[in-house]
Design goal:
39% of the residues lie in helices and 25% in strands. With 241 residues, the protein is an alpha/beta fold. The chain has two domains: 1-77 and 156-241, P-loop containing nucleotide triphosphate hydrolases (Rossmann fold, 3-Layer(aba) Sandwich), CATH 3.40.50; 87-155, no CATH class. The chain has a six-stranded mixed sheet, with helices on both faces. A four-stranded antiparallel sheet has the order 2-1-4-5, covered by helices on one side.
Length: 241
């Protein structure tokens, strides 16, 4: 579904993403992990069109999308969440999600359709708050769910989920992980899931890719990752530092 080849992103003289290549197969949940600063969010920003690659290719269903604008890529079926949720603070919860539905459809749906889709995805992510309330009172877990709802409302075939567990307690993490499994199972959406910790992600993903300092250092099954000397070094090195 997605083929990334030789992806490079520099910020000034700093190489944030260094010759990264991987494929995402339709229907899978692929984990993308690595310590803070290893280039995970930058990789998402390149795929989703929020940043332009310096070089390399990104093909989505066989078509080159590298360097295209974010709205063009979104409307081809790639939805993404942001690590740091920034909802429109003056809009209600459901208006935020309905707006995402409009965006994904380039405005070619009615207000009623957008509202219905918003209500459906809010139900799906199990955001148990008043949909007409402002986003101001939402805690970390609710903001993460709202972020996911906004991405889903755009109607993605491929979902890029950036640190969906950040700021959640263990029980909320379990539910969020289960939810991603459900999104793949019920909606048939392929998922690339970024976290900086291994944790619960390793039980849900089919395959995992590990980044360190902008480079891919591992690709394989979660059980193999946990036993790989380089992966262990990257993680234990950080833990002991
Ligand atoms: P991760 O998501 O794996 O924690 P990021 O992809 O956010 O890491 O960042 C990778 C590296 O690139 C970090 O050192 C970060 O400081 C740097 N970086 C990310 N975005 C920018 C930017 N817009 N300008 C300069 N440096 C950036
Ligand atoms: Mg990040």
């Amino acid at each position: 579904m997605l083929a990334v080849e030789g992806l490079v992103k520099r910020f000034g003289g700093f190489l944030a993403v260094n010759q990264v290549s991987f494929e995402v197969r339709a229907g899978e949940i692929l984990g993308l992990i690595g310590p803070n600063g290893s280039g995970k969010s930058t990789t998402f920003n390149l795929i989703a069109g929020n940043l332009r690659p310096n070089s390399g290719s990104i093909r989505f269903n066989g078509k080159e999308i590298g360097g295209q604008s974010a709205h063009t890529i979104c409307r081809q079926g790639i939805g993404r969440t942001f690590q740091i949720p920034r909802p429109f603070r003056r809009l209600s919860v459901i208006e935020n999600v309905a707006l995402a539905a409009y965006y994904g459809e380039a405005g070619r749906i009615s207000r009623g359709q957008a509202q219905r889709r918003a209500a459906e995805v809010l139900d799906m992510v199990d955001l148990a708050v008043d949909p007409t309330a402002s986003t101001a009172g939402l805690g970390a877990a609710a903001l993460k769910k709202l972020e996911l709802a906004r991405a889903l409302a755009t109607g993605p075939k491929l979902l890029l989920a950036d640190e969906s567990l950040g700021g959640l307690d263990p029980a909320e993490m379990e539910r969020a992980a289960h939810l991603l499994g459900d999104i793949r199972g019920r909606l048939g959406i392929t998922i690339v899931w970024v976290e900086h910790i291994m944790g619960v992600l390793m039980r849900v993903v089919d395959r995992v890719i590990v980044l360190d300092h902008g480079e891919k250092i591992f690709e394989g099954r979660p059980a193999q990752a946990a036993a790989d000397p380089r992966v262990i070094e990257v993680y234990l090195g950080k833990a002991q530092a």
